[in-house]
Design brief:
Length: 383
Amino acid sequence: MGSSQVLVVEDEGIIAADIQDRLTTLGYEVPATVSTGEEALLKIPLYSPDVVLMDIVLQGQMDGIETAAEIRQRHNIPVVFLTAHADESTVKRAKITEPFAYILKPFEERELQTALEMTLHKHKMDLEREKVHAAEHETLEKTVEGSIKVLAKILAVAEPQSYELGVKMREYMEMCTESLKVPEAWDFKVAAELSRIGYLTIQAVVIQKIRAGMSLTPSEKDVFNRLPEYGRNILSSILKLETVARIVYYQNKNFDGTGFPRDSIGGVNIPLGSRILRILIDVVQLESEGNSKSKSLSEMQKSSGMYDPKLLEQVCTAFSQGPRKGKPVYLKDLYVGQTLVEPIETVDGTLVLNAGNRITPWMLQKLNNFVQVSGIKEPIYVE
């Protein structure tokens, strides 16, 4: 243990010198002895000791217990208390700082050596465990992210329409969670992206009938209604996706408690991510039918019982405050070849052209026609 450094914090000079001599005899290095907690906190960054030997009663504004708490928080260096005070209240206060050892004065060199060796060994083992846990956590994070990417790729190949909707809903979910200041919104965004993962479990003919608006048999209707359950079953089998799975499971649950799943959960007891997703699903659906986002949300506000009314208002605000992308131009400055990064709407909110369209000559002509008939919202955002 000869290379181990011990910082001594003791306000009685004679005792501090005695402790230094004993530590040197035992083979330790003592880079400094200090008499106050404040001085100890200044010296630690200079010497980076392996362990601090701390008296509880010190000069200055901080006692040993307060100093130990600061050392633990700032530097993660082990502290051994060395004191003559063994009363119950002092011991209770000292325990809060989780000291590695507690030695009472007067002490034998053997006690001091044993306490320091045990402290250094325990701290070394703790650091090794932290490294292992950090490595395991990093591996787990990579595994989870890899699993999500695999599921997304499978969905993109097997169900490209569901995948594209998921990408759009993730974008919308990110906008909403930022506006709502949702902490740790990763689960919400993954749930939005993989909200339709359950489609992988049903036959293609059933999906085709659903999209064509054809009548379904009772068994097919049951399959369709249970898609969130199938999605949950896929996701819940993956570590760290339990919350994502629950959000997906309740994505079709109405705020009044109706809808799937048929249980007693309703109102604010429905997961927040699911309540947001319930709104976004219908926004995306209405947009796909040619409605603008603002018009879609306006229509949804007329519904009763389907959505969390307060949350719906917040989502409306989130979309209205969404970050503008691209360069703003007026119609007179719009030219062929530019790409829309936001939809073009008429003054009354009717969708004219969706984001992603590259402007062509006939589009310019149509836009000028719209201006003459009902007007369009300007500026237009392009890249």
